[in-house]
Design brief:
Layout (H helix, E strand, L loop, with lengths): L2 H17 L3 H18 L15 E6 L5 E8 L2 E9 L13
Helix pairs in contact: 1-2
């Protein structure tokens, strides 16, 4: 996971915790579940339809929260480039993809 994506996840969790005690834990549980699915089957999530660059970028939606785990599939690794709110700043993470 890129440091910027980690920061996004922490910021989201803090925001949820500020709204209700324990909600950050729920967010992290949901996020870890998404990571587990991605790790087991990286091709399970659809490729981004609005990205036309050279990388294979996919997005796994969280169920309970309006966030997605955005990741790049490479032959030898999976890189999480963003934990992105689905209703804000689409493609704000694009400069993180090399």
């Amino acid at each position: 996971m890129l440091p910027a994506a980690d920061g996004e996840a922490i910021a989201a969790a803090l925001w949820y915790e500020d709204r209700r005690s324990g909600l950050a834990d729920d967010f992290f549980i949901e996020m870890r579940s998404a990571f587990d699915v991605i790790r087991e089957n990286p091709l399970c999530a659809p490729q981004l339809e609005y990205y036309s660059g050279p990388h294979e970028i996919r997005r796994r939606m969280l169920h309970r929260f309006p966030y997605a785990v955005v990741y790049v599939c490479r032959p030898d690794e999976i890189v999480v480039v963003a934990v992105a709110h689905t209703r804000r700043r689409p493609l704000h993470w694009l400069n993180r993809v090399d």
